[in-house]
Amino acid sequence: MAEQTPALSASEAFQLAQDAAQAMWSRDHVAKALGMSLEEVKPGYARLSMVIRQDMVNGHAICHGGMLFTLADTAFAYSCNSYNQNTVASSAHIDFLAPSYIFDMLVAEATERSLGGRTGVYDVTISTRTDTGEMKTVALFRGKSARIKGEVTASLSQA
Predict the structure, then answer these.
(1) How many CB atoms lie within 10 A of CB 39?
(2) 79 Cα distance to chain centroid
(3) Across-strand partners of 106?
(4) How many whole angstroms separate alpha carbon 95 and alpha carbon 6?
(5) What pLDDT does residue 130 have?
(6) Would you give per-residue pLDDT tens digits along the chain (159 residues)?
(7) What is the pLDDT of residue 115?
(8) Would you give the distance in Å from CA 29 to the centre of its chain?
(9) In what order do the strands lie in the sheet with 85-96?
(10) E strands along 28-134, which residues?
(11) At a CB cut-off of 8 Å and minimum separation 6, what does 134 contact?
(12) What share of the chain is helix, strand, coil (3-state, %, to 5)?
């Protein structure tokens, strides 16, 4: 008979999410190169931010959609790897709702919607603060995840 793994307490699950996030962040050269900040991670949730730089703006003087997708995908990655099980995207979709501009601070919040077996579904909302101080949604992203072999923290030695 297979040995059962005991359920983690809330504080243990939170610490595991922190450890997995730090392990990923130590190797996440793309996020760092784009100036992303890892603001919060907990089981099934992540929040990252990024300021739009001049080299992220397209020919219409708005943030390039690929930058929005990359920010959302990165938040998605931290959210679905928060259980310390190596997890990758199996598909993703983004809807661009409003433009964002140079020097805007983008905030991406990824939330787990469903997790079962080896797959999950995560929604990411990207917003920016308006002149009146309100948060305005600029893009919505949905990612589907697939768990693969290994643990995030255990793979540190392979980096």
Answers:
(1) 13
(2) 5
(3) 50, 128
(4) 40
(5) 85
(6) 444 456 889 999 999 999 999 999 999 999 999 999 999 999 999 999 999 999 999 999 999 999 999 999 999 999 999 999 999 999 999 999 999 999 999 999 999 999 999 999 999 999 998 888 899 999 999 999 999 999 999 866 554
(7) 96
(8) 14
(9) 37-42, 45-51, 105-116, 119-129, 135-151, 85-96
(10) 37-42, 45-51, 85-96, 105-116, 119-129
(11) none
(12) 30, 40, 30
Backbone angles phi, psi at 152, to 5 degrees: -60, -50
* SS3 call for 66: helix
In this structure, are residues 17 and 42 in contact, taking their beta carbons and an 8 Å threshold? Answer: yes
Neighbours of 24 (CB within 10 A): 25
Buried b (16+ CB within 10 A) or exposed e, 118-156: eebbbbbbbbbeeeeeeeeebbebbbbbebeeebbeeee
Sign of CA dihedral 67, 113, 19, 39: positive
CA–CA distance, 111 with 47 (Å, rounded to integer)? 9
| Distance from C-alpha of 79 to C-alpha of 31, rounded to nearest angstrom | 14
Count of residues making up the chain: 159
pTM here is 0.92
